[in-house]
Specification:
The protein is an alpha+beta fold. The protein folds into two domains: about 180 residues, Aminopeptidase; about 110 residues, Alpha-Beta Plaits (2-Layer Sandwich), CATH 3.30.70.360. Helices cover about 35% and strands about 20% of the residues. It is built from nine helices and twelve strands. Strands 1-2-6-3-7 form a five-stranded mixed beta sheet. A hairpin with a 1-residue loop joins strand 1 and strand 2. Helix 1 crosses helix 4. The protein is elongated and about 80 Å long. About 35% of the residues are buried. Bound molecules: zinc ion. Zinc ion binds next to loops.
């Protein structure tokens, strides 16, 4: 068989199985789950591998997630085809569930695409024509969110890294893989497909501002206001923005996950989650120093304490222009 015949057979197998592939994508869409909580999604993919494709499945590849292998006994390089399981938080979305989870980032499409590729390769019967192995993976926790929950998982020894693919690199899931491919849905206008695009890397951060409680009405002079420390800290970072290079595309976007305990008390325990993003590693490191300095100065101004915990995020994504020509 030549390459075009192989492609035609694969595409035909995908078209012939269109309904089950789309149904799997729809099932994912109807069961949105945040990262490292994709138990239902893992089951949907795992059942598809077993029931539709007759594959053996390895579950819990990085706490959640699953993997199936094909052409195990064929000598040659191994390609892994990946699809991401996790949803994002967007309570405004009409399809979001009670937790605000929804597949607004289109990861259900990735899962359907990965299963479609598996279906095309297996049901067309062309695997025997290939000179290598293909693994299919449903990968957890692409979105780097719910840092508190993941910190707990890490403390419990269930994960070491907050990103699913980082965890998989750490636990050796990619050790026997020569090339990994995946795609992400994107609004490209007239264009059907592109490689890349480039994107920022980031450092994740949880921050605790520690003040001193006192009655907010009768004795605020005896307290130390950790919420003021956090607000000053954020504004200190804003004052750094002109020092960030345009080409580094630095982003600092904190949220306050706890602003105090009761309104009658001077807030003494204020928590923040933040990312420091940039297009280059140097830009990330430079901006991160300034962010830490700004936040710390906010605490210093009111006499509060600060604890900053840094979490390895993702490196910047670069693209190879000639790949796009191919
Ligand atoms: Zn996404």
């Amino acid at each position: 068989m030549n390459l075009n015949e192989i492609k035609e057979r694969v595409i035909k197998a995908i078209d012939d199985n269109r309904d089950v592939i789309l149904a799997a994508g729809k099932a994912m869409y109807d069961n949105p789950e945040f990262g490292y909580k994709e138990f239902e999604g893992t089951k949907i993919v795992s059942n598809y591998f077993k029931n539709e494709l007759g594959l053996e499945v390895e579950e819990g590849i990085a706490y959640t997630g699953c993997r199936a292998r094909s052409n195990k006994d064929i000598e040659g390089p191994k390609v892994a085809i990946l699809g991401e399981l996790d949803a994002i938080s967007c309570s405004d979305h009409t399809d979001s569930n009670e937790l605000g989870a929804v597949h607004a980032c289109g990861h259900h499409i990735q899962i359907a695409g990965m299963l479609g590729a598996a279906t095309g390769l297996i049901k067309s019967g062309i695997l025997a024509e290939l000179g290598g192995k293909v693994d299919f993976m449903a990968t957890p926790a692409e979105e780097f969110v719910e840092l508190g929950y993941r910190t707990k998982l890490r403390e419990e020894g269930k994960i070491k890294y907050f990103g699913g693919k980082q965890e998989m690199i750490y636990n050796g899931s990619f050790d026997d893989v020569d090339m990994a491919v995946m795609f992400h849905a994107l609004d490209l206008g007239d264009k059907k497909v592109l490689t890349g695009p480039v994107s920022n890397g980031f450092i994740g951060k949880t921050v605790k501002f520690i003040g001193k409680e006192a009655h907010a009405g009768s004795a605020p002079h005896e307290g130390i206001n950790a919420l003021n420390a956090a607000m000053l800290g954020i504004n200190n970072v804003h004052a750094q923005r002109e020092t960030f290079k345009d080409s580094d595309r630095v982003r600092f976007h904190p949220i306050i996950t706890k602003g105090g305990d009761i309104v009658n008390s001077v807030p003494a325990d204020v928590r923040m989650e933040a990312y420091v993003r940039a297009r280059t590693i140097e830009g990330m490191i430079d901006a991160n120093k300034k962010v830490n300095r700004g936040l710390t100065a906010g605490a210093y101004a009111v006499g509060a304490e600060i604890e900053i915990t840094e979490l390895p995020g993702y490196l910047p994504i670069l693209k190879h222009d000639s790949m796009e020509d191919v």
